[in-house]
Amino acid sequence: MRAQVVIALAFAVALAAAGCAESADGAEPGTCSVALAFTPAMPVATPGAKVRVNALVSGVGGVLDYAWTVHRGGAAVDFEEALANGSAIEFLAEDPDVYDVTLDVWAPTGSCPRAREEIAVLDPNGNLLEVRLHVVPPADAGAPPTTRRLRLVGGTDYPVGPVVLDPGVLVTRSVQSGGTGVPAYLRFSPAGMDEASVEAFSAATGAFTVRVHDTTHEVLVIPSDPGLAPRRVTWSPSQPTISVDAGTEITGAVHHGTSPIAGAKVQLMLDGVPSTVGTTGADGAFVVRGTYAAGAPVKVVVTPPAGSGLPRLEADGALDVARPIAIAYASAIALRDVGGTAIRRGPSALPGARVTLVGELASIGTVTAGVTATARGHVRIPLTADAGGVLPAALAPAGPLEAVIVAGAADVAVSAFDLGPSVPSMLDAPAMLTQTTTVLGSEPLAGVRLSLIPTGALAAAGIPASDVVSDETGALRAKLAAGGTYDLVWTDPAGRVGQHIAREVASLDASYVLPPALRITGTLSVTGNPNRIQGAAVTILCDACTGLDRERPIAEGASDHLGVFSLAVPDPGTM
């Protein structure tokens, strides 16, 4: 899509507002205020294109003197006066770039605060990148989190300008059931801004205090009392209470074949809202409480008792939970005792090695409530080898599993562990792979961070991410688990290049060329407060993405002591 189309689109953040951060000749700002207004607000670089800038001066009278400067990339840009009194100028904007305009105003009573603002002149061939600007102010800033959508245009940095946060409202309200206060967890999500949610807990009296946007919210309420059902309610800050109740009793039973399973934990997700957690009795029966509507999607999760060897069971579908739910592990699931398997590295035993058996198994059972849904299984069995490097007695499902072996600090390996035919007598834990690579932009880049985020078996076993940083030649050395896979996330704290992600890799390439950066800059403040916000977390998220990519930041940073943020995202380029 060409950048001209952007002019016809509604942008979430306007560039026309101007800041007054500096004072001409060092004078203290008084009652005078100065702002800049740009026409057009989103100019596109075309032959003969011009930008007009009008001075908006208030709080002072008399004949005013105006001193303008326009710069592009540090070089002065010629301009001409658009009004005889000097209060407006025009300059050519034939080249895509960020133009920096400053204005000093002198009144008969002295100087006014300097106005300075940047405006992006867009590349007519720029590709669009739709993102979300997510801001989480510090607790003492007096504003709730907020999210705004931006449409960036390739080839041109994006000076957002002043981002003025709504202070919202600070309210003290109550969670109640039948007039009695209820302690609960609460998550407030304002309409249209799911990421800008605010979490809180109500006290034993049910009272809670929270600062939220003055708008309708979707609130997830999870009472601490297991006799009360979690629910999702629509709420606005003017409402004094949030009401909960016992919801509906949902019953069922869990079996392995025809044998009941005691001690299993059962929880439902009812159209995204959790039920209470039920524990099966000796007869396999359970009771949970929840709120649901007929026909809404239902997900059932069963965590079997420790030591059973059974996988965690999950199934979803249009289940009729008004009926008893029959949850059955397939009788064909065989269990193997892995005790006696030796953990070795080559000829050497690995005493005390921590081993986590992981895997996903299809069609491990069924869940029936009006309709029947096929269940899938997730295996995660943590074990510790003895002093001789031998696994203790433990049951695991027969099938193609993997073993994640932690032999020591930052020493991890992944080995296949197929229990289908029999229990292997030995597991080999190959040494970590030490690999080198070079990170490049237009030249080798020092100080770039590589985050190795475990995926697959490593992620299932809970192995944490690790970071390494390139040296002055752009080279870095990283250790990867043999047999494991990672998402590689390259980030440049200096903002010279944009973030780059490589998915599900088992080894490093010889080099990585990171994409050019498009820089997003702005300032943060709260309506009615002249002070800028320091230390706010600022995140850029992909708006057009789906799944995990939609939630994973493409740039992260914080506002500095002047309330300024500057983040680099990958430039979507030009056509």
Plain-language structure description:
By secondary structure, the protein is mostly beta strands. Among the domains are: 1-126, Immunoglobulin-like; 248-428, no CATH class; 433-517, Immunoglobulin-like. Strands 22, 23, 24, 25, 26, 27, 28, 29, 30, 34, 35, 37 and 38 form a 13-stranded mixed β-sheet that branches. Strands 1, 4, 5, 8, 9 and 10 form a 6-stranded antiparallel β-sheet that branches. It is globular. The model is unreliable at 1-29 (pLDDT under 50).
Write the layout of secondary structure elements.
Elements: H1 4-7, E1 19-23, E2 33-39, E3 50-58, E4 65-72, E5 75-76, E6 80-81, E7 88-92, E8 97-107, E9 110-111, E10 113-121, E11 128-136, E12 146-153, E13 158-165, E14 169-177, E15 180-181, E16 184-190, E17 198-202, E18 207-212, E19 217-223, E20 231-235, E21 241-243, E22 248-256, E23 259-260, E24 265-270, E25 273-274, E26 278-279, E27 285-290, E28 298-303, E29 312-317, E30 325-329, E31 335-337, E32 342-345, E33 348-349, E34 354-369, E35 371-384, E36 395-397, E37 400-408, E38 411-418, E39 426-428, E40 433-440, E41 449-455, H2 456-460, E42 466-469, E43 475-480, E44 485-491, E45 500-505, E46 511-513, E47 517-526, E48 529-532, E49 537-542, H3 548-551, E50 553-558, E51 564-570
